[in-house]
Design a protein that fits this description.
There is one protein chain. The chain has 4 helices and 19 strands. The chain is an alpha+beta fold and 224 residues long. It has a single domain, classed as Mitochondrial biogenesis AIM24 (Double-stranded beta-helix), CATH 3.60.160. It has a 6-stranded antiparallel sheet, with no helix packed on it. It has a 6-stranded antiparallel sheet with strand order 11-12-9-16-19-14. It starts with a strand and ends with a helix.
Length: 224
């Protein structure tokens, strides 16, 4: 498979499939395709359907296979970016529930349970995230722009709620309480931050949709 990401802040991933190649996505993610691409909707068994539903995705997956060479496109649902990440053996990634757009057939999605109670309650991503393994490219939706860091072993990055998109499975996630009464009451950053500790890659986003929605709600309330 070859691909290109077009559209600047309103992006689309355009994939060029050779005969017999397959890409997959959750229901409703396909934007356009050539007539040489054939679609098949599958559930993959009750267990897999249940896991996808729990993690916030559609229970069914659409598979698109090229009967002859052709293109298929997947557009982002929110202004921002699309990040293509290569999944390979020994380098699985964990992502927020809303990030998945599409992937090659060899990529497997499973649910990831946050084992630390504090990170689950206060880290902003919840107890359930998505884990991708196998082999191939996965396309993730980014709110705003994507910023990637490679953390060394023991290196920490402190992140506000909602800014984490994905991280290597080797990265650990915990929470840290904001210190100082004035900082908590007047700093505007809340009571907890998410702490990511390497080694591994992390992908952050610059405009979380939840924060954008909160600002829009505040703006619309002021206009009434």
């Amino acid at each position: 498979m070859e691909y290109k990401i077009l559209g600047d802040n309103l992006p689309v991933a355009v994939c060029r499939l050779n005969t017999g190649e397959t890409v997959k996505c959750e229901s409703g993610s396909m934007s356009w395709m050539d007539g040489t691409i054939e679609m098949a909707t599958k559930g993959g068994g009750f267990g897999k359907m249940l896991k996808r539903s729990i993690s916030g995705d559609s229970a069914f997956i659409n598979y698109y296979t090229a009967a002859a060479p052709g293109e298929i496109a997947f557009a982002s649902s929110f202004p921002g970016a699309i990040k293509a990440i290569k999944i390979e053996s020994g380098r699985e990634i964990i992502a927020q529930k809303s990030a998945y757009l599409a992937s090659e057939e060899g990529v497997e999605m499973d649910i990831f349970f946050q084992k630390k109670l504090g990170a689950g309650f206060f880290g902003g991503e919840g107890f359930i995230m998505q884990q991708y393994s196998g082999q191939g490219i996965v396309f993730l939706e980014i709110d705003g722009s994507a910023v990637t860091y490679e953390l060394e072993a023991g290196q920490r990055k402190i992140v506000d709620t909602g800014y984490l998109v994905a991280m290597d499975a080797s990265v650990s996630m915990d929470i840290e309480r904001v210190k100082g009464v004035k900082n908590v009451l007047l700093g505007g950053e809340g009571l907890f931050n998410t702490v990511l500790t390497g080694p591994g890659r992390i992908v952050l986003q610059t405009m979380p949709i939840a924060k954008t929605a909160a600002l829009m709600k505040m703006y619309l309330s002021d206009k009434k």
